[in-house]
Design brief:
Elements (H helix, E strand, L loop, with lengths): L2 H5 L7 E2 L12 H8 L7 H8 L3 H13 L3 E2 L8 H18 L6 H10 L4 H4 L6 H7 L7 H10 L3 H8 L2 H4 L2 H9 L5 H8 L4 H9 L5 H17 L2 H10 L15 H8 L6 H8 L6 H8 L2 H4 L2 H8 L9
Antiparallel strand pairs: 1-2
Helix pairs in contact: 2-4, 3-4, 6-8, 8-10, 9-12, 13-15, 14-15, 16-17, 17-19
Length: about 325
């Protein structure tokens, strides 16, 4: 086995999320057929064989399933992958800067379609989206190259092209790199993260690993998603973040079921109660419930904060 063979990642073998009810999803017959053949052990080539569909049609169906959150994304690779990628990136960037960059744009795009390593990886540093589109036609272009483009390319068109391939967009390394790219368009962020649970979206809002503009866009995504989420999921993000998420949800009310679920809990976290007390949209019933909690009875500061809340019900 050559060094190159050892470095290549295993092919993506998509699988459905546990407990998923396919009939609840807005799928075409072809997409449903592809979904029924996902077993977590068959790669894209194998799926093309067993379904009798072309690789392009299988990939289109998988892209739809990924966008609906029906397909489990590929797991992150080994923990040392980022360090190895950074080291290799320096070598590939140097090759691009000292040799390939001098070529006319048309020649770089033509070359990208048939290049071999190390030129394939070096061309991932090209600033022109046309070159990135050409690279995607190269059969030697794989996950290592997609990760290079995702982190280093600086045009929305080039980043959209990478994410348009379901097998690439499902890779944890590619997604992580895209989120760290300062040129990630908001439309692509919605596609990558729009279907995630509120708790995952909140983690992105507070992450220090992504640019500020991505955190801002993630905050808007969280707010939009909160408005349509199930009550149980709303409670989950409030409780598990100890109310920290409420700062990003200012001005958004909750429905009766969410309020009832929150009122059905026992509270022992001082921080959670503090953050709920600062939440302007806190339902009156929840304030009354919190007043009865032992953690509040023992703290005059928490009692006062809840008493001063504008939605605090009058004592009888």
């Amino acid at each position: 086995m050559t060094k190159r063979d050892q470095a290549e990642p295993a092919p993506w073998k998509p699988s459905l999320n546990p407990g998923l009810e396919l009939r609840s999803l807005p799928l075409t017959p072809e997409e449903g057929f592809v979904a029924s053949r996902l077993d977590g052990a068959t790669d894209l080539h194998g799926l093309s064989v067993v379904t009798g569909l072309s690789p392009e049609r299988v990939e289109a169906a998988l892209e739809r399933l990924v966008s609906l959150g029906a397909v489990s994304p590929a797991e992150a690779g080994d923990e040392d992958e980022p360090a190895r990628t950074d080291e290799a990136a320096g070598v590939h960037r140097q090759l691009y800067e000292t040799s390939l960059r001098r070529l006319p744009p048309e020649e770089r795009a033509t070359r990208a379609k048939t290049a071999e390593e190390p030129e394939v990886s070096a061309l991932c540093f090209d600033p022109l989206p046309a070159v990135i589109h050409a690279l995607l036609e190269n059969p030697r272009f794989g996950l290592p190259q997609a990760r290079l483009v995702a982190i280093h390319h600086r045009t929305p068109s080039g980043l959209e092209a990478i994410a348009a391939r379901a097998a690439l967009a499902a890779d944890a390394g590619v997604r992580r790199a895209l989120l760290r790219n300062p040129q990630l368009p908001a439309s692509l962020l919605r596609r990558l993260h729009g279907g995630r649970r509120l708790l995952e979206q909140h983690k992105l809002v507070v992450s220090r690993d992504v640019p500020e503009q991505t955190r801002r866009a993630a905050r808007e995504l969280l707010r939009a998603r909160f408005g349509s989420a199930e009550a149980e999921e709303r409670v989950e993000v409030i409780v598990k973040t100890e109310g920290r998420c409420l700062a990003s949800l200012a001005g958004l009310p909750v429905d009766g079921k969410t309020a009832a679920l929150l009122c059905g809990r026992t509270y022992s976290s001082t921080l959670l109660v503090q953050n709920i007390a600062r939440w302007a949209a806190c339902p009156p019933a929840l304030i009354a419930h919190l007043r009865k909690q032992e953690v509040v009875r023992r703290s005059s500061a928490l009692k006062l904060a809840l008493q001063r809340h504008p939605n605090a019900p009058s004592r009888t």
